[in-house]
Design a protein that fits this description.
This protein is an alpha+beta fold. Helix content is about 45%, strand content about 20%. Strand 3 and strand 4 form a beta hairpin. The longest helix has 19 residues.
Amino acid sequence: MNKKTWTDWQVNKPCPNCHIGHLISVDNKFVQSETRESAMLTNDEPSYPYTDYVFTEHLKCDQCSEIVMAMGFKFEDNYPNPDGDHNMSINYSAFIPAPHIIEIPKSCPDAVKKILIQSFGLYWMDENSCANKIRVSIEALMDALKVRKTKITRRGRENVMLHNRILEYKLRNPDVSQYLLAIKWIGNSGSHLSDVSKEHILDAYKLLEYALELIYNDKKKDLTKMSKAINKRRKPI
């Protein structure tokens, strides 16, 4: 995962359908309108240095032609810079459907995939909600890995906290458990409405992408299958 892809609006995002191509803006499908607050400020103060817009945009995959709808806010300087251009920036608030921020292994359980795909959309809208959804994906992962979720106590059957489930999984896979625990702490911050940034979210995704790769290891399975076939035939396949 390349963080710059998700923090720099000028970098084309990967297609949520084919995952190979990139989303390119369709020129005649970009529509912007100045916000009411910006219009009031510029009317009251003609020398106001910025103009703020809301926009909608259609993006098209350069490989499979998938169409994605995007929306957000655009900020533009009212006065040209020394090069004669107007500086501007774009903050995306939503992609429909949302690009996949990390690669999900093919053999990853559908329940985990579904939650992760939901989290990709939340990344643009609400960092705290996104962090919480990533935490929920770890809960689903523990379920898929059959790590016990309840225990019998003197008070009856009780749920096992996610932290303890990860520690239990550590007995099976100590390397991966440390990544999952770090992700859980980031998810906890989102659940408690702490100041979670996009950088924090991307850290969680980076850890999760590697953890899933270690657990499901599709690449190793594919390469092992290929090497066995070549060795059996003693020639390229």
